[in-house]
């Protein structure tokens, strides 16, 4: 053996091993917990495709979130799941004053003033066609069963909804629609409403047309009624396109840049940290990733806690400092055990 061959001496003790993480360790405040808000006030509905997650009515939120806030929950991202509201072509229910996420914003800001409230901004949960933007009546020139997005109207509509959420008390709006120009439109909307200094803008910048959104679409009833989202979510292999989207959103006024999904896109997370070094990089461990980790543990392939750490730590190593994850409640316990 040569002197330069020996590495084991640096990792023989657990504390030595913890020091090898270059200071990039998981903390509770890095986690944002995605929650589904139903328009049935007393709902507490199990979501079969998303183990351990439920759709919650307003009357159940205090009981659900209170214990998590006590354990150190710092942030949530709200997704509205209107089961009874009318859905139309422009997603009018998205910013109707009675819509679940606006009601939840008013309630949660009173119940938990310290909790950071982020709201997802999109139309797909509220449109009759289930797409994330406003569609034109023109058929798509390329593919008949694909939607044709109306660019300006979509960006303006998303901005309208984002401003409504900021007015209702959102600390951060997160547009997951992927419409071109929506970041600039939202920022201008917040500025005109006098809210740009008290509502952050977390852009889903590099969001891919992934196969990993199924359980979410189940939970939120937000699957497209025809075609798919390939003409507005990034192609999975589009690494340079992702860099362009990241840099575009940074220029258009985003405060935080997100990559989504996470595990199959660690290279994009690292690109985001490298190409927009002055913006925090967030990543979303999406429903399909979460369900995959849970399913593997149930099959006995690995331990659930071990794999939840191994996957999320890889995202932090790649450069993420904010993680949207359905494992958040468990991490509030697991990080206390460490
Ligand atoms: N606005 C689109 C919703 C979107 C995926 C999709 O349905 O295309 C995500 C929510 N922001 C899904 C998140 C998840 O799968 O956990
Ligand atoms: Zn959408």
Which molecules are bound besides the chains?
3-(2-aminoethyl)-4-(aminomethyl)heptanedioic acid, zinc ion
**Number of DSSP E strands:** 10
Total count of helical runs of at least 4 residues? 11
Question: How far apart lie the N and C ends?
Answer: 35 Å
Estimated radius of gyration = 20 Å
Note poorly predicted spans.
none
Helix content: 25-40%
Going by helix content, strand content and strand pairing, the class is: alpha/beta
Q: Which percent band covers the strand fraction? A: 15-25%
**What is the average per-residue confidence, as pLDDT, rounded to a whole number?**
96
Strand order of the largest sheet: 1-4-5-6-7-8-9-10
Shape: globular
* SSE ordering: HEEEHEHEHEHEHHEHEHHEH
Largest sheet report: 8 strands, parallel, barrel
Written overview of the protein:
The chain has 338 residues and is α/β, with parallel strands linked by helices. Helices cover 36% and strands 16% of the residues. It has 11 helices and 10 strands. It has helices spanning 14-18, 61-70, 100-111, 151-167, 182-192, 214-220, 239-251, 266-275, 287-298, 304-318, 328-337; strands spanning 31-38, 44-46, 54-56, 75-81, 116-121, 172-175, 200-207, 256-260, 281-285, 322-325. Strands 1-4-5-6-7-8-9-10 form an 8-stranded parallel beta barrel, surrounded by 8 helices. A hairpin with a 7-residue loop joins strand 2 (44-46) and strand 3 (54-56). Helix 4 (151-167) packs across helix 5, helix 7 (239-251) crosses helix 8 and helix 8 (266-275) packs parallel to helix 10. The longest helix has 17 residues, at 151-167. The protein is globular. The two termini are 35 Å apart. The model has no long low-confidence stretch (mean pLDDT 96). Zinc ion binds next to loops.
């Amino acid at each position: 053996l040569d002197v330069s061959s020996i590495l084991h001496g640096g990792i023989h003790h657990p504390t030595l091993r913890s020091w090898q993480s270059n200071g990039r360790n998981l903390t509770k405040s890095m986690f944002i917990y995605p929650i589904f808000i139903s328009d049935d006030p007393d709902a507490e509905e199990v979501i079969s495709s998303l183990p351990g997650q439920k759709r919650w009515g307003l009357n159940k939120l205090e009981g659900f979130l209170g214990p998590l806030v006590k354990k150190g929950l710092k942030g949530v991202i709200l997704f509205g799941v209107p089961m009874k509201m009318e859905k139309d072509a422009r997603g009018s229910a998205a910013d109707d004053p009675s819509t679940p996420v606006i009601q939840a914003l008013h309630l949660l800001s009173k119940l938990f003033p310290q909790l950071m409230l982020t709201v997802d901004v999109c139309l797909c949960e509220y449109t009759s066609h289930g797409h994330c933007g406003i569609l034109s009546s023109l058929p798509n020139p390329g593919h008949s069963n694909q939607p044709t997005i109306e660019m300006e109207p979509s960006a303006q509509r998303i901005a309208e909804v984002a401003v409504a959420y900021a007015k209702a008390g959102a600390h951060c709006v997160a547009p997951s629609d992927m419409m071109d120009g929506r970041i600039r439109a939202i920022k201008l909307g917040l500025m005109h409403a006098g809210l740009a200094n008290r509502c952050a803008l977390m852009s889903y910048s590099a969001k891919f047309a992934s196969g990993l959104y199924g359980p979410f679409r189940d939970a939120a009833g937000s699957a497209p009624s025809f075609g798919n989202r390939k003409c507005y979510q990034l192609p999975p292999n589009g690494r340079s396109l992702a860099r362009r989207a990241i840099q575009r959103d940074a220029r258009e006024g985003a405060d935080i840049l997100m990559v989504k999904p996470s595990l199959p896109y660690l290279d994009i997370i690292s690109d985001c940290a490298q190409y927009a070094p002055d913006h925090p990089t967030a990543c979303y461990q999406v429903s399909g990733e979460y369900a995959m980790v849970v399913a593997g543990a149930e099959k006995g392939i690995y331990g659930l806690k071990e794999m939840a750490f191994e996957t999320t730590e890889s995202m932090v190593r790649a450069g993420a400092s904010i993680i949207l994850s359905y494992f958040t409640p468990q991490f509030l316990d697991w990080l206390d055990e460490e």
